[in-house]
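Weekly modeling sync, notes
Attendees: AB, CL, MP (scribe)

Item 1: holo prediction request
CL wants a bound-state model with methionine before deciding which constructs to order. AB pointed out that an apo prediction alone won't tell us much about the pocket. Agreed to run with the ligand included and paste results into these notes for async review.

Input as submitted:
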Amino acid sequence: MSKNTAFPSASLLGYPRIGRRRELKKAIEGFWANKIDATELDAAAKEIQLGTARRLTELGLNEAAAIPGTFSYYDQVLDAITHIGAVPARFGELRNADGQLDINAYFTLARGTVEQQPLEMTKWFDTNYHYLVPEIGPETTFSLTSTRVVEQFEYALANGFETRPYLVGPVTFLLLSKASDEAPADFNPLSRLEEVLPVYAELLSRLGAAGASWIQLDEPALVADQDVPVAEIQAAVARSYEVLGAAAGRPQILVSTPFGALSELLPTLAGAPIEALHIDAFKGAVPSAEELALLAGKTVVAGVVDGHNIWINDLAESAARLDILKAAGLAVTVSTSTSTQHVPQDVTEETQLSEELRSWLAFADQKVTEVVTLAAHLVDPASSAVAICEASAVIASRAVAAGVKRPEVRARLAALTPADFNRSNFAIREAAQDEALALPPLPTTTIGSFPQTGEIRSARARANKGAITADEYTTLMKEEIKRVVELQEELDFDVLVHGEPERNDMVQYFAENLEGFNVTVHGWVQSYGSRCTRPSILWGDVTREKAITVEWAEYAQSLTNKPMKGMLTGPVTILAWSFVRDDQPLGDTANQVGLALRDEIADLEAAGIKIIQVDEPALRELLPLRRADQPAYLDWSVNSFRLSTAGAADATQIHTHLCYSEFGVIIDAIDGLDADVTSIEAARSRMEVVNDLENHGFGRGVGPGVYDIHSPRVPGAAEVSELLGTAVKHVPARQLWVNPDCGLKTRGYAETEESLRNLVQATKEVRAQLV
Ligand code: MET
Ligand SMILES: [Zn+2]
């Protein structure tokens, strides 16, 4: 081993990397648009990394290896892919003359090319962060094709900061991988472990040589139930750390296991030649005395501060947990349960929030202070006694603050009966809807949003600043809606949307129009690549003071004779993409939102809207990582959707939209939503989902996406026809809808128009062959 310094007493598992003012987003998008070159991008990235190091040092993370080296240009899994050379064969040769995967190759994998779709993207555990999915097969070759993590470490060190380099660990990497196109049907990526490990070992040796005293290998997959048997995972973990533990001149190894309790894998890691083990002691439990005994000799990095939500830490509770670990005679240090990349950077920037609300919140920077306070507690309880008492007092005051509990909301929830969650049989609804809507076979529609142009954003910014009046803003948005409706008429879509120009974000928009929420100004959190969202804060009981979407929907419907979809965001997604109160069961909060949406649907129906889409793209995301916890989740989540929609008339067609591809996993829940039509991502995963639909015998309307909207690539009509051809082989044509994978808000108009034109043309061709 290189250096033998102790693990820092206080640290974070990871830190936001997008920059305080989203500097990384601007730099990357500038690079993609050829406005800056690779050197300028590199300089911007370095500035962000140094800024982080300075800030964290200032906040008290001043021991060696306390600052997590979690910067990434796009995604930490993509970083691992490019370091070990795991490029899918379909991309051809991406290495440059030096045999390295440079920044251009890196972004090619993330964004695709004219011929090749990018790597698939999926959610990182139960967060709203998306990683790129490695494609591994028997043909994949592994070699060290990037040393960026070493260079980043060296650069920080040269500037006076010894950071702690971060890599996704080998077992998690392979468990998150999917089989490549070339792989045989029963191929398991984990079978390539022996070839992957030497590359990791080489990287560790290089980091050691560069002077790193610690490396963090992130193994969150070990806290989630996997399809692979536990014994196989245990063997893979043991083997991995045996090999990496033996890497020449390596740094000391911290294995981090965020997102829950390790359970069966704890003894395996306890027996491995690693120097420190991080456990999630916030969401997971404090290990038992027997488990703790196994950890003797290792540093336990206790993740007692929640990295994934924004409420201040119950320091008294955390101190108690730390005391148990300390009493077991272990070397204990304090950290966050997960990387803080899932929360915004600094709550003190949110000066528009009331002082009271702000006092309840801890963003990444405030979590540093909490971690430092708790580390001080371990050394000398007296030193942090005041801070601990203060936190308890704030938590107590929050419980009784105005708006946190509203009697009228609670009474309405208490009065619900099973009838409030059920519609008529689908057959009855289907007949009523066929009559009301008279749609052609394979109806075409889009998922809701149209491109959010610079003009739309600038109008909103001006309205927020007061530079234009609310009426002027409304007029501009109505003009935009008119353009979008005319475009869809021209393209000959069957079911139209208004395009959602008035929504900054599909959750924030509702949060701004419901009581019980607040929104932030600078609270950006990375969602994928350069995309960030600003999750709202759901802190109180939810009420709807007045109709939210009706005026827009009514206006849009007045412009066309075709059906206009009303567009709402569902309760589960509103919860998933907000920071949600932690003082009551999530199901109660979801039902409060559900009732507000139910009232909105009644108002839309009264305004003449015949189709209403309630988006639930996050249904899969909140699915607990442990199977034992899943039924309870699916029960409350499905019920809250049903509560939202079950007030609709039989003739009102309820749509839902889900954007992820592992449909199979929760198909029963999707069925349970009882929506009349479900649209789902499929193009990016090349129609894999239709097999699940067929196997399940899914009986209601379904629109597997035929246009991957996550990249600027335009699918040709032939490609769309082919996807539809696959779909009609597996799903009865009378159930099929034709739509993109997701909304179009991130796309430009040029590619959108061309893609949608191809989509309609292909549909007409396939339709003609149906009879
Ligand atoms: C992430 S799902 C997006 C659904 C929303 N209706 C849209 O089209 O943008
Ligand atoms: Zn979507």
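Recorded for review: The radius of gyration is 26 Å.
Action items: CL to compare against the apo run; MP to circulate these notes.
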